[in-house]
Amino acid sequence: MEKRNAICMTCGRVSPISTRLTFEELALLFEGSSASGAERAYRKAVEHLACLLTEAGVLHMIRLKRKSQTKHKKKIAAAVYLYQVDNDGEWGEISFDFEAGTAEIVRLAEWDTTESNIFAKRIIHYIFQHIGAFLSQRIPMIVFAP
Q1: Confidence (pTM)
Q2: What gap in Å lies between CA 25 and CA 35, rounded to an integer?
Q3: In whole angstroms, what is the distance from residue 18 CA to residue 29 CA?
Q4: Cα separation of 86 and 57, whole Å?
Q5: Under a CB-based contact definition with an 8 Å cutoff, are residues 89 and 109 in contact?
Q6: Main-chain dihedrals φ then ψ at residue 122, nearest 5 degrees
Q7: Could you read off the pLDDT of 62-99 as tens digits, one per residue?
Q8: I need a surface site. Which of 11, 80, 90, 95 has the fewest CB within 10 A?
């Protein structure tokens, strides 16, 4: 992970993106691995690091899972996403109507506050920003500073 992120694990120094290894180059370091295997290992390591930083209170993490979706003329017309805050507690639920451009908070996650709904609002903003992109079944995390 240190070579892909170009982050020194000792001092935290970040190198320029031009010096980072590709997943193919990382695969050569892990003998017998493919580029996709190196990418999966990298993603798992990044997710583990994000979990550790969340536990330490350095950042917040939101996990998303698509519960259902409705298509109209080969486009996603509506979807329901579950979300969990900081890897703990009950999952919340948000319903999206992409044709109308609306979202409704069905149920708040356990760590989302009832007054500000800060995590649900961030998810709504994120989903509407990426509406044109392919939204996978499981978006592992959205990370932001407290």
Answers
A1: 0.67
A2: 8
A3: 19
A4: 9
A5: yes
A6: -65, -40
A7: 888 889 989 888 888 888 989 988 878 899 999 999 88
A8: 11
* DSSP codes, 39-88: HHHHHHHHHHHHHHHHHTTS-EEEEEEEEEEEEETTEEEEEEEEEEETT-
Based on the number of CB atoms within 10 Å of its own CB, is 10 exposed (0-12), middle (13-18) or buried (19 or more)?
Answer: exposed
Q: Give dist(CA 119, CA 62) in Å, integer.
A: 8
Q: 113 vs 30, 89, 119, CA distance in Å? A: 44, 13, 8
Sheet holding 75-85, edge to edge: 102-107, 92-97, 75-85, 60-72, 138-144
Token pair for 48: 């583990």
pLDDT 10s digits, 109-142:
987 876 778 888 888 888 888 775 556 655 656 6
User: Looking at this protein, which amino acid is placed at residue 129?
Assistant: Q
DSSP state of 18: G
Structure tokens at 130: 């990426």
Q: Which two tokens stand for residue 36?
A: 């996709």
CA distance 40 to 25: 14
